[in-house]
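Let us work through a complete example step by step.
Step 1: write down the sequence.
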Amino acid sequence: MPDHPLDVEDLRTRVAKVLDDVLAHQSDVLEQVSPECAPLVETVADLLAGGKRLRPAFCYWGWRGAGGGDDDCIVKAAAALELFQAAALIHDDVMDHSDTRRGMPAVHRRFATLHRGNAWAGDAERFGHAGAILAGDLCLSWSDEVLANCGLGDDRFRAGKALFDRMRTQLMGGQYLDMLEQAVAATGSVGDGGDAGDARDPVERARRVIRFKSAKYTIEHPLLLGGTLAGAEPAVLAAYSGYGLPLGEAFQLRDDILGVFGDPGETGKPAGDDLREGKRTVLVALAVRGADPSQAALVRRLLGDPGLDDGGVARLREVFVDTGALATVEALITDLVAAARTALEDAPVTAEAGAVLSHLIDAATSRAA
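Step 2: predict the structure and record it as tokens.
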């Protein structure tokens, strides 16, 4: 096996080739509108160049685990997930007012800089947001187009498309819940339509957000997409859910920790951005639950402050450590990874896929970015 599980079957290179071909084609399409549309493709191309290709890997090995052979058709289908993720990232950065993504200016910041650099009329920030929304919409449209033209038979495509559509709808719902948590947390309200089962438990509400905003579309749904396209038996699909959902949650919990304690040189985003945005992560919810009055007051004062400096980030880090929130999240990650490993051990999948999926557990949850 290659040094990294994402490189088995030369998958990352093959996905990158599909994406390059897609962008070249779409560049030609937009050229017919005007050469001035070039930044729409250029910004997407730069964003896509920095991806790890986790989602395509889970899709591909979901296919192989269900008995599918190595086939360029599934590589193309898997590449559609990268385009969908790009759409989600671009729009997420607009909603969160994020400055950077993958070590580069966020797409809306790039369009705002383009506006200022040309001394165009109007508001640069508004132009930046509009350009990013359009770029994200294009990625969403292109993801559909790539999946539809991947070359699989009609029956398999229809089954896979239904799952693909469900994945995208649920992610949007999870994104809305994420915004809702930030909006209502300070009031103690759960908003219209709140789930009575988790209304009084901020930790469970935070876990619901990450399941639907990140965990499912990062691992479970890509696995199910690959398996469904391969015609997997129900037992295989059930095993994929048993493996993918806890692993996806562990992946996001690790990402939340890195967002506060990680090295910006590795994560591609400034440390503390989630704190400035007021994200109600599991880490934050656990800290608030375990805080004494002075710690709780500190969190209320600093969380969501867009001007939060390094000193403020350091003080919040202390709260996360001293309340035991960090240790609890680390323990939760360990438990979720163990659940994923157990599900994989019992999964009726091919031996090669099982071995790669086992290594992908570490790739998804390591302490590096």
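Step 3: interpret the result. The chain is about 75% helix and 0% strand.
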